[in-house]
Amino acid sequence: MMNVPLTVGSLLERAEKFFPKKQVVSRTLSGIHRFTYKEIGERTRRLASALEKLGVEKGDRVGTFAWNHHRHLEVYFAAPGMGAVLHTINIRLSPEHVSYIINHAEDKVLLVDEDLVPLIERSKDQFKTVEAYIIMTDKDELPETTLEPVYSYEELLREASPEFEFVKDIDENDPAGMCYTSATTGNPKGVVYSHRGIVLHSYAFGLADTAALSETDVVLPVVPMFHANAWGMPFAATWFGSTQVLPGPLFTPKLLADLIEQEKVTFTAGVPTIWLGLLNELEKGSYDTSSLRSIVCGGSAAPRGMIKAFETKYKIPFLHAYGMTETTPLATVSRLKSYQVGLDEDEILDIRSKQGLLVPGLEMKVVGGNGEVKWDGEEMGELLLRGPWIADEYYKDERSAEAFRDGWLYTGDVATVDEEGVIKLVDRTKDLIKSGGEWISSVDLENALMAHEAVFEASVVAVPHQQWQERPVACVVLKEQYRGKVDKQEILEFIAPQFAKWWLPDDVIFMEEIPKTSVGKFLKRALRDQLKDHLVQNS
Ligand code: ADP
């Protein structure tokens, strides 16, 4: 066979050639804009040529600090297309982490959204390698800024050549992108994506038994383009010529519901907190969501009750998937096997709320105290992964030695595997509740709590306990209409039939809101800090 390198530039070339009329719909601060792939291709080539003029060379890191919109998409292809490396920076990290990441990756150029300029300004004095800032704005004038030297994205494009040729003579193993995990402790860890990894991951995204992304789809990535490359959707959707709807800055559940209705979105993806918000919005207003063929949910466990509400009440098929920044990220997808379709509703929901089957192309092991666990849905162990789109180290980071061993990524996730080979995540190792030498899954308790009709969000954390070492405490946010009407006892009685007595939370604390991480997951560390003396005080 021919040894042809798999390159990110070739993904956009295909869209330019075969789908020049298809659209990218982009929401920015000034409203909705529409571009064809022909226009996106031309603008991307202009951007690559402008970056070259600014001194960006092969292997240099090009940082982005931006929402999901067409300009961000153009950088997704311009940087790897010229042999440089796209580095997407999480806009919600602390100023210290933002400076750490930019210095650690040694970004040469930073492309920044107009409304995010103040966030970059507050860290800029710490940056050691940035030689130029490019502001992404719809306006003719640049905002006032202390960043320098500073350029206008659109002006650079106007002055640049649309003839730029994406580099062909690169090694497919060369870096194309990088992204840092949002650290819960210590500094964020960098993951480098190769051209080959991104292209193979894009293939995987299109498989009928995974996400089945195709030209016919209208794709709305809610997951940010600064979080694991919006789960790889911008690459795959461009390659396949799907219509893309990029929701832009500061979106709300209402805006998402409106975009789904107006743009007839067929496929969307994000973390559970987004879908809990959308569900709440759908309950308030009347929206036509009939175009949706799939909501993909990952990043943390999709609550069973939420899956049920989407599927039965709104008839929206719900796809639960699992992955990590380190896995590009798609690793497992939960789908019924052909012979499971006739099972009863509860059994189907059980399968759907598990994390699912390994995506073709990857290998897995679940390893407990006695080696690989039995596939009995009971025995727990740490999930290990390997494959062509799984990272093999953290970028220049000694913590690699712990996570990458013997050719495997140690995910830090504890799972069971059932007879069908389906994995169910029990917890992250650090979130498991260790009570009297036994493990309690916070995820299972959360699932049960969120199935109560009054519960909007629930997070269960370990709280230190003198006798049992740790005990579970549930933090619950009630839906507005139920506040003050439902008490602790009712909640505990509701979940009691599903668990052994010692699994039940020692307390239920009602909150206004559960603190979230920079990518919208429950921030359990903050809850643990807040509650560490709770049981002592109440015992
Ligand atoms: P961060 O580490 O910044 O949260 P990642 O997106 O890389 O960012 O997080 C990956 C982790 O998210 C996984 O290791 C796992 O613990 C959790 N996760 C991802 N998908 C799921 C899922 N479907 N169910 C439960 N946990 C999930």
TrEMBL record:
Domain AMP-dependent synthetase/ligase: 14-395
Residue span(s) of domain AMP-binding enzyme C-terminal: 445-521
Keyword terms: Fatty acid metabolism, Ligase, Lipid metabolism
E.C. number: 6.2.1.-
Top EC group: ligase
GO MF assignments: ligase activity
PANTHER family, A to Z: ACYL-ACTIVATING ENZYME, BUTANOATE--COA LIGASE AAE1-RELATED
Protein name: Medium-chain-fatty-acid--CoA ligase
